[in-house]
Amino acid sequence: MLPITILEALHQARQDIDDIDARMLLQDVLSVNGAYLIAHSGQELTPGQVKSFRLLAMRRAQGEPVAYLIGKREFYSLDFTVTPEVLIPRPETELLVDLALAQFPLDLACKVLDLGTGSGAIALTIARHRPLAHITAVDVSAEAVAVARLNAAQLNVANVRIIEADWFEALGGERFDLIVSNPPYVAEGTAYLSRGDLRFEPRIALCAGGDGLDCIRSIIASVPGYLNDGGALLLEHGYDQAQTCRDLLSEAGFGGIFSCPDLAGIMRVSGGRLGVS
Ligand code: GLN
């Protein structure tokens, strides 16, 4: 095998995959950052590095998500380990974290619950920004719980308790000041599920019944039993679900109900406070 440089390897890979993906994969093979690839573009790769890179590029060309190939994804400027057992954290979910952090100041020992935590992206990010908060994160998947615990250790987060449970089942009579969730909310059987990364993600983390609202309906119906008076609920939802979420929140006794658009201008998070008119 003739020696090739970083630049040549990227050039070759670009015939099959996006430049940005090729760079992410090569950074992972070489354990370097993006700036290194630019600054050392003339560096020759070892045969082992070329082999590893070509294998990853081939898998990417066949559709596998970059995040699963390199085993990580950045979320809110933190590196999260991800495996095919958890949803890949999305940029739009950073809005949910922004809104959660706006709910309580740095010096308040707030009790927070994250339902369906997956990789732990939401719970652990809130924990990093609110070290005094007591956070509980639950997920029904044992594999997801293992990934979330690994992320807690890697991010040095000690104020999150991660529990394997079906929604509220393990919480007894405990009440929280803030409940957040990015539940499954995609309608079963939509063509959207056969596109891009979604084909490789766990269905249990994506789909929730014929209209995608099964989990949202059940969370909103149960949440009043687990929120302190005046406590807030924030839910991520699908592009066309904001109005239904607001109606469900209103029926469940929430006030101050709102929806907030993500950076693409799509209504993405809705919420309200219990017992506030
Ligand atoms: N936001 C994801 C998507 O539409 C869906 C994640 C979810 O169902 N919570 O790709």
End-to-end CA span: 71 Å
Query: What is Rg?
Result: 21 Å
Biggest sheet: strands side by side, in what order? 5-4-3-6-7-9-8
* Largest sheet properties: 7 strands, mixed
Strand content: 15-25%
CATH topology of the largest domain: Rossmann fold
Which small-molecule ligands are present, each listed once? Answer: glutamine
* Structural domain tally: 2
**CATH first level of the largest domain:** Alpha Beta
Helix content: 25-40%
Question: N-to-C SSE series?
Answer: HHHHHEEHEHEHEEHHEHEE
Poorly predicted ranges: none
Number of H/I helices: 11
The total count of strands amounts to 9
What overall geometry do the principal axes of the alpha carbons give? elongated
The CATH architecture name of the largest domain reads: 3-Layer(aba) Sandwich
Briefly note the structural class of the backbone. Answer: alpha/beta
Notes on the protein architecture:
The chain is α/β, with parallel strands linked by helices. It has two domains: 57 residues, Helicase, Ruva Protein, domain 3, CATH 1.10.8; 190 residues, Rossmann fold (3-Layer(aba) Sandwich), CATH 3.40.50.150. The chain has a seven-stranded mixed β-sheet with strand order 5-4-3-6-7-9-8, with helices on both faces. A two-stranded antiparallel sheet has the order 1-2. A hairpin with a 2-residue loop joins strand 1 and strand 2. Helix 2 runs antiparallel to helix 4 and helix 6 packs parallel to helix 7. It starts with 5 loop residues before the first helix and ends with a strand. The model has no long low-confidence stretch (mean pLDDT 96). Bound molecules: glutamine. The site of glutamine has 9 residues, from loops. The site of glutamine (GLN) has 9 residues, from loops.
